[in-house]
């Protein structure tokens, strides 16, 4: 609610509504200013005319007025108060000190529809008001003067037809409701741009902000943001191409180097060189896998998880032997089917085993298990992962102080797992070390 009250939409709505109210008040104030010739003269209270009409009585050929408390109070408070009354039947009456100059003007009182006369003179008392009113005895014309007065503003408002006051109130209410609606409609383009900006993702290049229905003042900014996004996309594409090319070019010389090392006489030096080259090959393959995942070149098909994991364990077994690690594999005899990309799942198993070899030390025991319903477990009895590092092990380029890897292996594992709709987490087995558990959705 607080964020909404600070929004541009809310501020503009409030200010426009307040501005409209201020403009209306100013119009009323200006309209209430008397004409030059009437300044200094009072406005007579027209409600007196209604009071007189409400108390009229017809008695044969004459008219009479009942003195109710309110009318009697007016008569007592205003000694110069007077009035004339006439109806359609020709009956008439007068009350009070009617000025001499008034009677000749209104010989036929009943024919007066409305009158308002203000002039200066001792015989008139400042002004005359009159209008035709519905009374208990029918339509009558009431003319009065010398009665109570009002402030100019109230006097002017009193002469406004109540219908127009209701119409004005309705228009003000309609305007107060229409202003937020029209503003929201005009600013809908801005809200859409904000929503589009919130969904921009580095893993989904090509996103642009829509300039349609955006105010011209903001179109320049939206265009600048789109231009910046284009430059970012171009830079990311160049970086991806460079990494893919570099990783691809490294594979051939690394393969040749591996063959030459394998021709060396057996010994500790040969084993260490094989491990070093294997790490380089793994890094190159990880970079290629990252590029393949970024390009969404992942083909999902129904595969047997047991067969995939067994193939990965078989491929990496020579590296485990060279590292003096004890590697074992266990899986159910029947198939566990998942929707997966073959190369991606093999990469997950390979990276988890390589991580255990790299951090478990010599003679580490690595157990790979496929369990029901669709679960892959890789555990080792090495030093494990400190609790403070467990939340970061899947971040790119994160390495523990004693680590020698690239920091990409587990990050790639998490990327592949999430793209398959699976989950991965770590726990500490009963005998120490670390266990990675991957749970796949069933096919």
Automatic annotation (TrEMBL):
Compartments (UniProt record): Membrane
EC number: 2.7.13.3
CDD domains cross-referenced by the UniProt entry: HATPase, HisKA
Membrane protein topology class: Multi-pass membrane protein
Enzyme class: transferase
One Pfam family hit: HATPase_c
Domain Histidine kinase stretches: 245-443
UniProt protein name: histidine kinase
Organism: Cereibacter sphaeroides (Rhodobacter sphaeroides)
């Amino acid at each position: 609610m607080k964020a909404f009250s600070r929004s541009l939409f809310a501020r503009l709505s409030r200010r426009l509504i307040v501005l409209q109210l201020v403009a209306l008040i100013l119009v009323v104030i200006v309209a209430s200013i008397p004409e030059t010739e009437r300044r200094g003269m009072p406005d007579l209270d027209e409600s007196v005319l209604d009071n007189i009409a409400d108390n009229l009585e017809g008695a044969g050929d004459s008219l009479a007025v009942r003195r109710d408390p309110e009318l009697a109070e007016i008569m007592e408070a205003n000694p110069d108060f007077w009035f004339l009354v006439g109806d359609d039947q020709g009956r008439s009456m007068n009350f009070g000190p009617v000025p001499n100059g008034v009677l000749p003007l209104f010989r036929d009182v009943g024919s007066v529809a409305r009158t308002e006369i203000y002039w200066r003179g001792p015989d008139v008392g400042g002004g005359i008001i009159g209008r035709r009113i519905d009374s208990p005895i029918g339509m009558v014309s009431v003319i009065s003067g010398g009665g109570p007065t009002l402030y100019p503003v109230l006097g002017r408002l009193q002469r406004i037809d109540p219908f127009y006051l209701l119409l004005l109130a309705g228009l003000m209410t309609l305007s107060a409701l229409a202003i937020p609606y029209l503003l929201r409609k005009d600013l809908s383009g801005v809200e859409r741009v904000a929503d589009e900006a919130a969904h921009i993702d580095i893993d989904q290049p090509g996103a642009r902000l829509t300039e349609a229905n955006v105010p011209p003042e903001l179109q320049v900014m939206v265009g600048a943001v789109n231009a910046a996004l284009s430059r970012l996309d171009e830079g990311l594409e160049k970086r991806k191409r460079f990494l893919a090319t570099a990783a691809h070019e490294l594979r051939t010389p690394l393969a040749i180097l591996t063959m030459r090392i394998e021709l060396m006489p057996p010994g500790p030096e040969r084993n260490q060189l094989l491990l070093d080259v294997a790490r380089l090959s793994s890094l190159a393959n990880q970079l290629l896998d990252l590029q393949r995942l970024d390009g969404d070149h992942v083909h999902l098909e129904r595969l047997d998880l047991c067969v995939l994991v067994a193939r990965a364990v078989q491929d990496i077994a020579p590296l485990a032997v060279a590292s003096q690690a004890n590697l074992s594999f266990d899986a159910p005899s029947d198939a566990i089917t998942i929707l997966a990309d073959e190369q991606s799942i093999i990469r997950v198993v390979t990276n988890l085993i390589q991580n255990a070899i790299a951090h478990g030390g010599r003679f580490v025991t690595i157990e790979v298990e496929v369990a029901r319903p669709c679960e892959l477990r890789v555990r080792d009895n090495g030093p494990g992962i400190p609790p403070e590092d467990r939340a970061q092990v899947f971040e790119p380029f994160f390495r523990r102080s004693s680590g020698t890897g690239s920091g990409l292996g587990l990050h790639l594992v998490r990327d592949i797992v999430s793209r398959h709709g699976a989950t991965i987490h770590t726990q500490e087995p009963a005998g120490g070390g670390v266990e990675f558990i991957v749970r796949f959705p069933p096919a």
